[in-house]
Amino acid sequence: MSDKKKVVVFDYGFGNVRSAERALAHVGADVEITRDFDRAMNADGLLVPGVGAFSACMQGLREARGDWVVGRRLSGGRPVMGICVGMQILFERGIEHGVETEGLDEWPGTVGPLQAPVVPHMGWNTVQAPQDSELFAGLDADTRYYFVHSYAVHDWSLEVTNAKIRAPKVTWSTHGEPFVAAVENGALWATQFHPEKSGDAGAQLLTNWIGTL
């Protein structure tokens, strides 16, 4: 019997599922691309990719029952990781071209246009991770990751008043203005950048995630 962690890349029509599959397999996961509800629910980890428009991703995710899968997994403390728009849809809402779309509302906050001289933000950039980050463990502060996006979450914080609940670990980057580059919040982790396109650094980051499953 394999001791590899079973990871499902959720296939809802939006996302680089093949590159995510290759990157996860490269770091030792047993990977499957599927939208099957039971398989997605029973995997050790669920990865939700995403490319394109916030509204289109949300529509595709709901049609594939992905909103149920994410919600049910998190209610049971089962790990979920979102990438790029797969991170953005975890927030309360997205605003694109003046149109507001409801997200999964796992976190409060709004995804809006990047205010920068050049958009989209495309290419390699550094991040500022918390010292106690598990996601970025073993990675230097000057490490660069690959971004492709025109929208992001800005000025975001999640106030925690219950001493028994840990506040999320938020990682930031800057392109024109500061924006959320990653979040670690219990069983729910996410990155705005693409680990599967970030070379050795992305491989280390995925290894860190798999190590928590």
From TrEMBL:
It comes from the Bacteria. The keyword Transport does not apply. InterPro entries: Class_I_gatase-like (IPR029062), GATASE (IPR017926), Imidazole-glycPsynth_HisH (IPR010139). The keyword Cell wall biogenesis/degradation does not apply. Keywords: Amino-acid biosynthesis, Cytoplasm, Glutamine amidotransferase, Histidine biosynthesis, Hydrolase, Lyase. It catalyses: 5-[(5-phospho-1-deoxy-D-ribulos-1-ylimino)methylamino]-1-(5-phospho-beta-D-ribosyl)imidazole-4-carboxamide + L-glutamine = D-erythro-1-(imidazol-4-yl)glycerol 3-phosphate + 5-amino-1-(5-phospho-beta-D-ribosyl)imidazole-4-carboxamide + L-glutamate + H(+); L-glutamine + H2O = L-glutamate + NH4(+). Its main location: cytoplasm. It holds the Pfam family GATase. Gene3D superfamilies: 3.40.50.880. Its EC number is 4.3.2.10, 3.5.1.2. The active site is at C84, H194, E196. Pathway: Amino-acid biosynthesis; L-histidine biosynthesis; L-histidine from 5-phospho-alpha-D-ribose 1-diphosphate: step 5/9. CDD domains: GATase1_IGP_Synthase. IGPS catalyzes the conversion of PRFAR and glutamine to IGP, AICAR and glutamate. The HisH subunit catalyzes the hydrolysis of glutamine to glutamate and ammonia as part of the synthesis of IGP and AICAR. The resulting ammonia molecule is channeled to the active site of HisF. Heterodimer of HisH and HisF. This is Imidazole glycerol phosphate synthase subunit HisH.
